[in-house]
Amino acid sequence: xxxxxxxxxxxxxxxxxxxxxxxxxxxxxxxxxxxxxxxxxxxxxxxxxxxxxxxxxxxxxxxxxxxxxxxxxxxxxxxxxxxxxxxxxxxxxxxxxxxxxxxxxxxxxxxxxxxxxxxxxxxxxxxxxxxxxxxxxxxxxxxxxxxxxxx
Length: 151
Hints:
By secondary structure, the protein is mainly β. It has one helix and eight strands, in the order αββββββββ.
């Protein structure tokens, strides 16, 4: 039978674990073409905060690596809400990471969604296209938009 002292220690440890901030969870990523060997490999996506809150800034961090040197290029981003395309944009890759990019690098994009954005599940498809229109990578991942957070 456990002593009162050991039970108190276990209770204190459990209370401390509950007070720790939640660790950010990496989002699952799928490549657009499963058999294709993309020059840019994506190792993970982190979304902060998760779920995303309408009207509040959200940061999407994509960890990637490549053997190529990327001097310039673009990110082509398409967003779907269930099966409906709701947003599309093209960004300069050097505005989202330091160029030239080679080896391990991170693409970081911050966006504030309109406050009227409906809550639910969304899917992003992101293509990394080189300066010669070569598709360097294409990934898809899901994210959630929560209800409007109180100010």
